[in-house]
Amino acid sequence: MQERSMRRREAILVAAQDLLVTENPEDLAMREVARRADISIGSLYQYFPSKPAILRALVMRNLDKVGALLRGEVNALLEDHAGRPTIAQAVDRIIDAYVSHYRSHPEAIAVWAGAQADLELRRLDVIDTRATADFMVAPMMILLSSSDRDAILSVALLITELAGHAVRLALALEAPLTDRIVAQFKTMVTAVLEANREPN
Fold it and tell me: Do 71 and 117 share a structural domain?
C-alpha cells in the first residue's frame, strides 16, 4: 500500500475511532467519518465498503495492540523474576497492564462495544481470546507447576475472557469502585490460579 493510501486509511480509522468514543456504534455515520477524515464519501467507500468493515479494522488493530502488550508484559514478568514469578506478581502485572491500556485508550472500549453488535466481529473476538489463552498456557504451566495443558487452557480461556470484561466494567464506574473492582478481580484470579496449582 502506498504511503498516501496508508495515511488516508489511518485518517479514516482515527476519525471513526474518535466518533465511537462519543457515539453509539450503530449511530456511526459514514458521512461524518469521511468529513472528519477530510476525504470524500466516495474515497471512504474505496477504503471501507461499509461500517462493519471499519469496525473490523479497528477491532483487528486493537486486538493486535492488546496482544503485543500482553506478550511484552509476560516476557518482562518472566525476565524480572528469573522465570519464576509468584501468582500475585503475575496477576498484578498482567491486570495492571490491561487497566492501564484501557484507561489510556478509551477508544478501545468503544471499539469493543461496537464489535459486540456484529456476529462476525464477536467470532473474531472469540478467536482472539483463544489465541491469547493459547499463548498464556506455557507461562501459566510454569507459574502453576502444572503439566496438565488442557486444564490450564480452560483456566487461561476463562481468565482471558473475564479480564477484558472486568477491566471495562471497572473503568465505566466512578473512581472508588474502579479500584475495588480491579482489586476484587485480582483476588478472584489469584484464587482460581491457586486452586489449579499442582502441589510440589
Answer: yes
Q: Is residue 138 part of a domain?
A: yes
Q: CATH code at 60?
A: 1.10.357
Helix (H, G, I), strand (E, B) or coil at 104: helix
CATH number at residue 6: 1.10.10.60
In a shared domain, residues 44 and 67 = no
Q: 86 by DSSP, 3-state: which?
A: coil
**Count of beta carbons in the 10 Å neighbourhood of residue 68:** 10
pLDDT, tens digit, 9 for 90 and up, residues 28-80: 899 999 999 999 999 999 999 998 899 889 989 988 999 999 999 999 999 99
Query: Which grid coordinates are listed for 62?
Result: 486493537
User: Cβ distance 74 to 45 under 8 Å?
Assistant: no
Residue 200 domain-assigned?
no
Please report, for residues 63, 80, 98, 136, 176, the alpha-carbon distance to residue 186 in angstroms, rounded to integers and kept in the order given. 22, 20, 12, 17, 16
What whole-number distance in Å separates Cα of residue 198 and Cα of residue 144? 6
Q: Do 169 and 90 share a structural domain?
A: yes
Instruction: Report residue 1's pLDDT band, with 50, 70 and 90 as the boundaries.
Output: low
Average pLDDT score, the chain: 91
Q: Is the pLDDT reported for residue 200 higher than 80?
A: no
> What whole-number percentage of the chain has pLDDT above 90?
71
Q: Is residue 73 part of a domain?
A: yes
